[in-house]
Amino acid sequence: MSGNNSGPRRTVLAKATSILDAFAGNRVSMSLSDLARATGLPASTVHRLAGELVAWGGLERTEDGGYAVGLRLWEIGARSRCSHGLRETAMPFLQDLFDVTRQHVQLAVIDGNDVLLIEKISDPRAVGTVGRPGGRLPLHATAVGKALLAASAPDFQASILCRPLVAYTPYTVTSAHALSRELAEARERGFALSTEELTMGVVSCASVVTSPGLAPTAAISVVMPADCGPPRRWAHSVTTAAAAIGRASVQQRGSGAISAQLTGAPASRTPGTGASLESAGRPPSNRVSDKPFR
Amino acid sequence: MSGNNSGPRRTVLAKATSILDAFAGNRVSMSLSDLARATGLPASTVHRLAGELVAWGGLERTEDGGYAVGLRLWEIGARSRCSHGLRETAMPFLQDLFDVTRQHVQLAVIDGNDVLLIEKISDPRAVGTVGRPGGRLPLHATAVGKALLAASAPDFQASILCRPLVAYTPYTVTSAHALSRELAEARERGFALSTEELTMGVVSCASVVTSPGLAPTAAISVVMPADCGPPRRWAHSVTTAAAAIGRASVQQRGSGAISAQLTGAPASRTPGTGASLESAGRPPSNRVSDKPFR
Asked: Where is this region: Disordered (chains A, B) (predicted)?
């Protein structure tokens, strides 16, 4: 079939998506040669496909002749069930939580072996943090990651625990045994904590969003300066807001808008693309398979 | 070249992007036959390309066997300069404006002949409105649209004024002459108003974001119930917040993060794709060409 064999084992579409993937890091704009390097494609191929993507609006040209992600891609991405469904359902409760805490409030999901931040509400005067919507954070060094991990199936937890746990600060928990114990505690008490484990001077408290009959894959957190006191003082607020989002999601479920994101079930991506751990038809391996969280 | 001629005048990539475009409306999920109908492609072609997009993560499968926009597309879209740059710079000031008003606060840009909503902060108890991030609103019936239109170049204004102006309510301004006069007033006083012109019972007040040396294409607004009093009472707050975002954007300019979005310059898309009005190298036609707004 034409379009499937213009290069060794990569379709035209796979080449085009590899160009888009090159923007998944922190660089806002990339030159033609940056893109050729990142994708391993000839510059002529990148030029042609990037031109088509610009014509569509998925990319746009920058002043310096490079490329940036275009408005059309953002517009269509905003229709994802994560943004359109989960985020929209959660926003009022995140805003309430922000009103109470006046600290960063985050909404996140597991994607692959990372935390993917879906939303972040910040006070202009709040402590500087690294996360932004669309950004990724490590599971083991953030409260939101630990809350998600604690609610995951044992085999997924094990797959994370057996990998090297990167030390971001002197306080990052890098022992699989210690992390495993912390996850059990988080599961028991309904919230997880991070005390300067990703960024010095920054602490956080998180809880997963549960909905009756659905496994949790979303979590919310409050992130604040360490000198504001122990993060667990926000535990009641965070768990209450998480429960409210879970309750609201039940009302949305009829519409199909967010149940999928909350179950993690729909992301039937090809194994190995790093996105989700299940393939179509099988229950996701990070689904909570035993008892409800909390 | 393979991949460019498997159908009449549409490349493989154009077919794939037409599948993504089918999600730009309000439908969260679409079946294979919905997609075939929307794109005009054979079901077998949709099946193959949608399968590739699922493998990448740009689409995901839904429980009922349909397709929805995937997390990967959202993640990469979040890297657009609009989201990563403009939105991020504006957020603290939008949050301040929300704190003062406790009404919906919106950030929007012109895209084609529409308002494209970039961000919306809402109080859980605020009045119901139609807009959501990634959604489109009419230029002539919203305060944010009128503010953007008032700051646009005369030829762009004229192109909007000579089109039929849809009446959404009995109060929508549908006379080109009356709208033109309103735009002149908005330009003069620095803010625009909508009084139940899009939705009965809802009013709004908006101001464009200006930055020295850059033409405005972004605007912010406050949207509230009509029974809260005249929307112009928030004019000072809205114009102050807009000015603050413009000032902050100057500091960002060195990084190249948002200057492009504010000038409208980078969106060098193929004319006719409905995205922006300029082509590469020419100044955008909706750029303010005479004197600064306000």
From this structure: 256-294
* Alpha-carbon span B179 to B177, nearest angstrom: 5
| A54:B2 CB<8 A | no
| Residue pair A107/A86 in contact by the 8 Å Cβ criterion | yes
In the 8-state DSSP scheme, what is residue B270?
Answer: P
Cβ neighbours, 10 Å, residue A169: 15
The distance of Cα A121 from the centroid of its chain, to the nearest Å, equals 15
Q: B133-159 in b/e burial notation, b at 16+ Cβ within 10 A?
A: bbbbbbbbbbbbbbbbbbbbbeebbee
CA distances from A166 to A24, A140, A160, A204 (A): 21, 9, 11, 18
Report pLDDT digits (tens) over B236-279: 999 999 999 998 887 766 544 444 444 333 333 333 333 332 23
List, in order of start, the domains of chain B with CATH numbers.
12-75 (1.10.10.10), 81-263 (3.30.450.40)
Nearest-neighbour CA in chain A from B217: distance (Å)? 13
The pLDDT tens digits of the residues spanning A162-190 come to 999 999 999 999 999 999 999 999 999 99
Q: Residues 6 or more apart from B126 whose CB is under 8 A from it?
A: B102, B103, B104, B223, B224
Contact B116, A70 (CB under 8 A): no
Question: What is the per-residue pLDDT across A241-274, written as a single tens digit (0 to 9) for each?
Answer: 999 999 888 776 654 444 444 433 333 333 333 3
CB contact under 8 A, B53 and A133: no
Left if phi > 0, otherwise alpha if psi is -120 to 50, otherwise beta: which for B31?
beta
Which residues in chain A are closer than 8 Å to B255, comparing Cβ atoms? 28
Lowest mean pLDDT among A50-59, A61-70, A216-225, B250-259: B250-259
Q: What is the pLDDT of residue B262?
A: 44
